[in-house]
Amino acid sequence: MDLFDTPGTLVPIPIMDGELALLPQLALPLSNAAILARLLAETPWRAESVVVYGKRHLQPRLTAWYGDASYTYSGLRLEPLPWTALLLELRAAVEAACGHRFNSVLLNRYRNERDSMGMHSDDEAELGDDPVIASLSYGTARTFVLRHKNNKQTVRLPLEDGSLLLMSGQLQKHWLHGINKSTRSLGERVNCTFRYIV
Questions:
Q1: Cα 194 to chain centroid, rounded
Q2: What does DSSP say about strands 142-148 and 154-159: parallel, antiparallel, or unpaired?
Q3: Which of 27, 54, 73, 196 shows a CA-CA span of 20 to 30 A to 95?
Q4: In this structure, are residues 61 and 54 in contact, taking their beta carbons and an 8 Å threshold?
Q5: Torsion of the alpha carbons at 187, 34, 65 and 149, rounded to the nearest 10
Q6: Count of CB atoms within 10 A of residue 110's CB?
């Protein structure tokens, strides 16, 4: 079953040059709060630095990479940690909802309103030509910002606790996406971006 064909649960996001869909709540046996607590406690979080415009910067969030393959972006090479029981359960639910296979997941931990994700595209060679990326969020809602590379069209989506966002088609070729810092106090959020490394 494909997320784009799931009646009653899909919220299609009208955009050009790509496909985008939002499932407000991914159904799982565990509560959202229990999943968040386990992700926070069971993950060996790391503060990584990346190269942006030729300069090395510490990422304004914590990360962890799990799966079956290594991954390289912005001058950073990530070697995978072995799948945990919780992440395997989350992957199975995400694959069932999306109708796609995933062999890796990047976890991002936003500790508070000062943590963020700069505007970027997930267009690395290891992801293939038209990557399918499923983004599962737990904890405090943050606004996901997409900006078209050519016409500067902007789409803002609040990613709520337990929501699943699917990006596919040529979206990574034509759009940038990111999470901005906030001026108001915000609690913890963990985002799991499932992907397939070719």
A1: 7
A2: antiparallel
A3: 73
A4: no
A5: -50
A6: 25
Q: How far is CA 60 from the centre of its chain?
A: 15
Token pair listed for 62: 């914590």
Q: Name the helix (H) or strand (E) containing 143.
A: strand 142-148
DSSP-assigned beta bridge partners for residue 54: none
The pTM assigned to this predicted structure is 0.90
**Residue type for position 169:** G
| CA-based radius of gyration for the chain | 16
Both tokens of residue 55?
Answer: 């300069």
Written as six digits, the tokens of 130 are 């038209």
Chain centroid offset of residue 123 CA: 14
* Amino acid 166: pLDDT: 95
Structural domains in the chain plus CATH codes: 13-195 (2.60.120.590)
Cβ atoms 77, 140 nearer than 8 A: no
pLDDT profile of the chain (198 residues), mean per 10 = 48 81 94 98 89 76 95 83 98 93 98 95 93 97 96 92 95 96 97 97
Of 156, 194, 172, 191, nearest to 121 by C-alpha is 172
CB 102 within 8 A of CB 166: no
Query: By three-state DSSP, how is residue 130 classified?
Result: coil
Locate tokens 């940690």: which residue? 81
